[in-house]
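User: Can you predict the 3D structure of Lipoprotein? Sequence below.
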Amino acid sequence: MTVTWRQALKSPDFWCWYWMVEGCEGLEESAMPQEALRIGPPGPGPALVLEVSKYERTLYLAHPRLPAQAQLGWVDDAHWHPHALRWEETIRAAEGLTEGRSEALLLLTIFTPTTPTDDREQVSRLLEAASRETGIPEPVREQILSVASIAVDAEWRCDAGRWVIEGKVYSLRDPRNPSFPFLELQELSSR
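Assistant: Sure. Here are the predicted structure tokens for Lipoprotein:
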């Protein structure tokens, strides 16, 4: 993790901006990390990559078999597609880190829909503990827990070895999307 990311993750303004909490001050562009954050096990293998800009948060998958990073989802002020990860994948990605596990969990939550079959109590406990550990502002903690506690009208299903989400969601992880890196993402979560 770079110095810029470490500083951003300690800033209440960063968390308010990242989670789009109403009433929070905006984040100065100079305080925003300019480089991507790699979230995954150390080494050259597959990893999630988070890029942020003033108006967008974008999640990619970096994998040695892919010619370029594959976009998994994004959150912006206009037409978002955040529903990219299952809770199992988010938790495993965060647990695979040597530093910043709680921060990674809170960053990836924005890309992780809670479905009716998810264990919302377990998710809430994990997010509550991560929130306490990182010391994020109370309005951000409340927003994260609120988002994670509401089940979207969708379900995950394994289709020919690929986890897809179906229902009322905004996701690139659709069984009809041939460019989504289903197998590479599954490989990341099985490491």
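DSSP finds seven helices and six strands in the chain. The mean pLDDT is 87.
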